[in-house]
Amino acid sequence: MAAALALMLLALTGLRGELAAAGPVAEASATKRVEINHFAFHPPTLTIARGTTVKFANASQVTHTATAGGVFNSGHIGPGMSISIRFNQVGSFSYHCMIHPLMHGKIIVQ
Ligand SMILES: [Cu+2]
Predict the structure, then answer these.
(1) What is the CA(103)–ligand 1 centre distance, in A?
(2) 100 Cα to the center of ligand 1, angstroms
């Protein structure tokens, strides 16, 4: 529960575009990118190490979200915008776009 809440707070921080620098964790962490285009997430499945920040970048002309139930939610990502979410919890997280429910992706945190 606390982890989910932390992720939500990070997602909100990401909306302001200052996630990595503003985070309380001092250690260096990697950043991976998921590009949203052609009504799909690329790559559809992304495997990362725990503590990695994933930047969801919308390269399309319409608004999308990256949403995984109570685990994380990017909120609306407008065309040309991006949201960064840090994954501190090990697990397999399937997500989708709330606006286009046929869009699916998965983040595997090891
Ligand atoms: Cu979408």
Answers:
(1) 6
(2) 4
Ligand 1 center from residue 77 Cα (angstroms):
9
| All residues at 6 or more sequence positions from 30 whose CB lies less than 8 Å from its CB, including other chains | 48, 49, 51, 52, 53
pLDDT in tens, the chain (110 residues): 445 544 554 444 444 444 444 444 445 579 999 999 999 999 999 999 999 999 999 999 999 999 999 899 999 999 999 999 999 999 999 999 999 999 999 999 99
Two structure tokens written together for 80 = 């040309």
Residue 24 CA to ligand 1 center (angstroms) comes to 31
CATH number of the domain that residue 8 is part of: 2.60.40.420
Supply the pTM of this predicted model. 0.74
Domain count, the chain: 1
Q: Which among 61, 81, 76, 71 has a CA at the least distance from the CA of 106?
A: 71
Range(s) of the domain holding residue 71:
2-21+29-109
